[in-house]
Structure formats: C-alpha cells, structure tokens
Amino acid sequence: MSDLTKLTIAEARAKLDAREFTALELTDAYLGAIEAANETFNAYVAVTHDKARAMAKASDERLAGGQAGALEGIPLGIKDLFATEGVHTQAASHILDGFKPRYESTVTANLWADGAVMLGKLNMDEFAMGSSNETSYYGPVKNPWRAKGSNTDLVPGGSSGGSAAAVAAWLCAGATATDTGGSIRQPAAFTGTVGIKPTYGRCSRWGTVAFASSLDQAGPIARDVRDAAILLQSMASVDKKDATSVDLPVPDYTAALGQSVKGMKIGIPREYRVEGMPEEIETLWQQGIAWLKDAGAEIVDITLPHTKYALPAYYIVAPAEASSNLARYDGVRYGLRVPGKDITDMYEQTRAAGFGREVKRRIMIGTYVLSAGYYDAYYVQAQKVRTLIKRDFETVFADGVDAILTPATPSSAFGIADQEMAADPVKMYLNDIFTVTVNMAGLPGIAVPAGLDHKGLPLGLQLIGKPFEEETLFRTAHVIEQAAGRFEAPKWW
Amino acid sequence: MRLAARFDRTFIMTLVDTRTPDPKRLISGATGDWEVIIGLEVHAQVTSEAKLFSGASTTFGAAPNENVSLVDAAMPGMLPVINEECVRQAIRTGLGLKAQINHKSVFDRKNYFYPDLPQGYQISQFKQPIVGEGQIIISVGPDRQGNFEDIEVGIERLHLEQDAGKSIHDQHPTMSFVDLNRSGVALMEIVSKPDMRSADEAKAYVTKLRTIVRYLGTCDGNMDEGSLRADVNVSVRKPGGEFGTRCEIKNVNSIRFVGQAIDYEARRQIAILEDGGKIDQETRLFDPNKGETRSMRSKEEAHDYRYFPDPDLLPLEFDQAYVDALAADLPELPDDKRNRLVNDLGLSVYDASILVSEKAIAAYFEQVAKGRDGKISANWVINELLGALNKAGRDIEDAPLSPDQLGAIVDLIKNGTISGKIAKDVFEIVWNEGGDPKEIVETRGLKQVTDTGAIEKAVDDVIAANPDKAEQARAKPSMAGWFVGQVMKATGGKAAPQAVNDLVKAKLGITE
Fold it and tell me: Which part of the chain is the Amidase domain (chain A) (predicted)?
C-alpha cells in the first residue's frame, strides 16, 4: 500500500468509497506518522489515539452501511482553540491546565457529524496571539520546510502553526484553524498549504476559545484548494448559539472549482506595496497577476487608502477585546490556580504564572486602551479606522471588482527564535500587514501557495473577496493553483 | 452578603433642577435650612423564565449552582445570546414609565474581577440604553389638612444588565463559596433624575415603581428576595443653591431602609458642612442594625470599568410595530385605574389611591365592586378587609374572605337584610369560620327586623319603662337617640335602624 497520508481529502474520500482501504487503515497511517514525527515538529499537543481509532471504526461501519458523510473517515487535526468534549482544550496556554470541556464546539461538531475523525489537538500560539507559534506554552512548532542546504529550523507561522505544519508534514489530512489577524493565511503561506479565513459570521464561534470576538473566524488549512473547499463546506453553518453567525445557506464550494475566471475583475491595491518588501514578493505578485490575466480575468489597479492604519488599529481593537475575553481565566472555576493569601493575590499569582509574555503584553495594551481617559483616543479612533477600512473595500467592490489579489505575507518563513523579532514585537506584528485588513473588514481571504523564494521556501498569494463570496475565492485560487502547481516540503525527517 | 460595589456607575447626566425649594421639606440645621436632593438607581429583576443571555432557569430558592449554564459559568468559548422575553419586559416597563423606547440599543461590557462574576465583566448597557427618559407620578401625604400632593419624578433611563452571582463567606473558615444561580439573571436598572427632596418622596417613589412593575408583571418586586433593590444618591444644599457633592448608598433592600438611610445620610452631610467640612464623593453602605451609613469606597478607589461594546452581541434593534404591539397588550396601570375609580365609581382620590396601591388589592376590589355599589364596596375593602389583614399581618393574597364572600355581605347591607353593624359581625364570622354570608345571616337569625309591628312594640316598651326620659326627650329632641339605642339593644341589633328612628320620633311626638 502506498503512503496513505500523501492523499488529499478528495482522493482519500473517493478511495474510501471504493473500499481501496478502510478508514481505520487511513487513521492508523496518520497515527503512525504522528508517532514517528510529532516529536520533531511538536505540531500536536495531544494525540487522541483511541478516540481516533474508535471514530475510524464507526466510519467504516457507516461506509459499509452506505451512510457515509462528506468527510467520512477523513483524519483531521484540531487547533487547540476549539473545545472538544473530554479532550485537551487549552488554547496552548498554561492557564487552562487540565481543562477538558464537557461540550463540543459547533465547528468540530459539524465535522464529526460529517464523519471526520479526530487525530488530536494542534499546537498554536497561546490564545492565538502570535505569528510564529513561539508563544505556545507547549513550545514552538517546526516548519517542515527548510531553506535549501540549511538545517536551520524555521517557524511555521502563527497562530495556527501546528495546523499548518501538521498539514504540510502529512500528519493530518486537513486541519481546523482560526484567523484573527492572519492566523490561518500567514502559516498557510509559510508552509505551502492553502488556508481560508471565511467571512466573519460564516463559521460559528461557539465553543472556540475567544481571542478577539469581533475578528475571530474559524477556517481550514488544507493541502490544496479543493480540500479547503470541502472542509469549509462542513465547518460553516448558522448557529443560534452565536449571535454573530449569519443565516445564509452554505453553497457547494467545490462546484466553484474549475469554473473560469474569464471576465472577472481582479483588483490590485497599490497600498500593498510596502517599504522593504523583498523583490521576490513583488515578482510573485506580478506572476499571479499574469496567471489570472492569462485565464481571462481583467486586472485593475485599485486604491485602499486606509490600509496603512489597519495594523495599528488592529493592535488596539484585538488587545482591547482580548483583555476582556481573557478576564475569565482567574483561577476560580477551571484551569490553573496558584494559591494566594487572599482572592486578589490568588488572581495575580494565577494570571502571572498562567499567561505567557505575549498574552500579558496584549492584556496590558488592551487594558490601557480601554481605560478612562484613553478610550476615546485609542479604542474609539481604532473603530473609526475600522469603518474606513471597511468602506475602502466596499467602494472597490461597488466599482465592480470581484476579488483583490495581494501577497499573503511580506516574507517567507523565518527562523525560530529570530533575534530581531524577539527584540521588537512590532517586527513580529508586521507579519500580518497584508492580512489584518481582511479581519478588520470582516471579509473572506484565502492564501494559496504560488511559488518558492530564492531559499526554496514557499510564498503565498492572498485573494480577498466580497462578504460571503467564498466561492469566488475558491474559483480564483484554483486557477492560481493550477498555474503554480503544488508545493511539498522535501522530506528530511 | 452581596457587595454592591459591582453596580457602581456614574452616568454623564446633566443635573437639572426641577423643583422649587419647599419650606415644608427642608431640614433645619444649626446654620439654617437645608434641602436634600435624592436620586435613585433601582435594580429590578426581570420576570422571565430564563436568564438574560442563557437558557438557565431563574427560579428563586434553587440549590446552590443548580441554575447555571455553561454561559453563566463563563466556560471558554461560550457566547451570550439575548433572551427576547427580557427585551419585551424592558420595553413594557419603559412603556409603563411613559418613557422613550430606543429602537436601537447596545450592550457593553463592564470589566472588573470578582469571584461571583465569572466572565470578568458584566454585560450591561452604558451609552445606549433600551429605554430613555420617562416619568413616575408619586403621591406624598397626607399633610395636616389630609391632602395628598402629586409629584412628578423624572426617569433618566432604564437599561438591561446581568446580575452577578453570590459569594458566601460563612460556610468555611478560610474559603468563600460562590453560588452562580443569580449569575446572568436579567436586571433592569431604572435610574431616576435627582428629583426627590425628602425621604418620604424617595419611599413613595420606590413604592410606586414597585407597584408599576408588579402591575406590568415585569418584576415581582420582592425586596426581601433581592428582586428589587435601590442605590440611593443623596446630597444636601442650601435651599435653591448649587447641587452638593453626592454620596451613593448601595443596595438598600427595603423601603423603610431607604427612608432611614436618607435621613441618616442627610443629617451626616449637614453636620459635616455645618462644621466647615466638605463632602467626599463616595460609595456608602447602609447598616440596618445601626441605622447608619458608612464609607465603602472613595471616588479615588472607584474602579475603572473599561466599558466597551460587547463584540459577542449585535446592537439590539426593533421597530415601532414591535413596540406598538407590546403597548396594545399593556394592562391598566395604577394611575389610570385610580382615575377610573374616581371618575366612574365616584370614589375619593384617597380611597382610590389605597385600592390601586397594590395590584392584588385593586383586583380584589374590582371583583367585589362588580355590579355593586362602588363606594360601599370600597369602604368594606379598605376599612374592614385591609384593616383586618393589617391587624392579622396577612397579605391580600391570603385573605380568609374571597371577594365573592365580601361582595355577598355588601349585597346583604344594600338590600336591607342586615345593618352595617350586623354586617361587621357577619364579616368576622366569615373571616374566622368561612361560609356563605347569606346562609349565616339566615341560620343565625341575624336578619334585620323590618316588621314595624315588632319594632313598634319594642319602642312602646322602652318608652313605657322610661317615662321621665320620654318627658325630657319631648323637650329636647336630641335625646331621641338614647331611645333608638335602647330599642336596638332590645332587638339584638336586628331592627332596621331607620325604622326605629322614625317610630321613636313618631311615638314621642318629635316632628323635626
């Protein structure tokens, strides 16, 4: 039997239907790969070996009984941010030590309802705060990609670093991820995988540990565009338990694949040409433009004038919400408790020990910007900027633009424990420069691999769409994928 | 006990002086008269099956932590979803307060740490409440002439917010326990304008507000269960002068205590000012055992709550048709009912006010008065029934007499079967033993004697037995009353008083 872990979800699903192998065999193949390589990558923080095999057996029964779901028998990794009943759910934080919820997030419940198999929980930046997966309490995740001729370990990006690395290293067929400022798209770009952040409200946030509620959105990271479409199809739903989820039917995303982009208007925002951006990012962008033009799309230059304010405004809004969302981790009801001499001391000791540096930094920033006397100057201003950013996009879409093409990241993956980034958090924050606008506007955005840089590391392009037009993104990303080909990390582990 | 600190709030509210200083409400101090300025923030628990943002039950008296959902316990990843019933109740209350209903309002997070606040924030409404300005008419009195005065108290706003849980400190030597049953229960915070000028007015305000929400069924108003509690803002000033610095007395949980707290606090502030001191803006607690207020937290120690719109909740929006439908379904409110009782049944304002003061009393009265004389019914409900209930320390809900039984007594009076005096005996019998008043009157021979022959005989007997008194009465007609009394006594009170009166006068030859 060939290596089952190399199959895409679509391929594996077809072969399961054809009884070429069983769901249990597929799951065992992944469990074997995880056992062999997880120590190297640190992608999983918990492997649900027995649960995975039990779910796979149940899938085999359903396959035999002709009741197979869309994801029947497909082994997936789940970001540690999603609540999974009875299973490790800690947002990769010390403060949630030992927390195993009695409930299942809506997104994962949707996946299981479609027959998917859970392999375990994936590493991530603590509370999804980071762009390198280095803020995890469980330590950094390694990127399966290395620069040509180098043994230096690189970051997989973040915060969904475990998800991206696991998908790229064949440790799961696909993974759930979340994106608050670029946490799906940047790691996808760093690992040669496909990641989509759907429109805000497309996936329920119920049961997903909150970072910044108005920005958080779940989405998949997958090997290719089709797999991403298949996964999102299952993850997306309206949910009466989430007041911000939107009641719109989930279309058949895979139906959009292979459709022509002829006549589509693709906007190229001039503000996304940032200072110090490597030449090869620009080259990649031009290549993407050329591919879409060749496919019959119309390329138009557009302006999104408030782009430069997006990152600073994001770093007010997101920490503000986070400072409040993370107040519940107080040692009273669950997770870590460090005893103190009184209640206030217990809070302080618990939170001091339980949160990592980056999380504390953001809680402090958030607390500051919401404080009396600063609220208007920071939070209110940032919300105004947010409105302007949203309006920028609305104007462009009203002018007939169907999707916007930009680079996904300003660079390829960087080294673990990068000195420059460690010294200056803002350098790390700049990783999200092309992605945060999308969260601020609540729009869908997809990162699709488009080439390798001079070091042989993957680079991605980003497509931004109109609200709830994920189909347009899949269709267009598929065209780029067809032109660019697929990118696999050369196996060194 | 519940710490009130968590409901601290300072609205940016423009203080408008709505009242002319009235000498009869002033407090005299050593340096002259002082005027006390009072504003109230009342927290009223919304009557609803489920909590404001979760499906957990709101039943009072459940075992600790029995009514707690994942949302109430702030488990990771849980989200609030608004309970529409609470929204309806808030709008209905707003309509009852003749207030502006805001078609768009926003839920904000009020951030602070406390063990019985699992989320680390309370979801409340800060800048855009669901209900804006309204008013309550309170009735204060009676004064020496027996008159009542209607005073209009402005409502600043009403907003929806979550209640906190309860910390219990007396169950363990070193630990505190937390009961989250109340966590997330919907409260309406109803903020008055600083329009009250005496403890009596403040008490009348809370009483009236409670009456209104009880009529509406939007809050049960049970202060001893914590369903209704008041934060009392008190300041003093020289009559008509600038507003003074206020102190806020937290979580006062009975109407009597509201009055005591204000009286104490006003005196305290006056004493400080008259000694040349100044008032520190602070939060205070009322100690019912000592009857005094004491400092809890100064302005400097006040929390910075870092309000911001809750990103988990969309703005609350509804249209006028939604409000209109609720308005159409509103029950008759106490002021309207009072006016109707005065205008249609001819009751005095005083009697009508008593009858409408509680929804249950009004309902009882209306049942008695149905198809009967309003005034007699009112007399019997107010003087006999309420008097007896008061004496027995019972509520109208468990009155031993049903409205139908009392109504039957009224009927017996009205059709002349029994006199008012006998009726009181019948009332007492029914109160103690129950039964059908008509039957009691029959079986116990309490029927009024209207047979003039029998009465005439009794009159003749009394006159014959008292010839000298008869002589006097002929000279001084007001003496006739004595004979009436004797005849009534002789007939066991059953003789129709009017008939006795007429016959006594006729027999004695008194013409006027």
Answer: 25-473
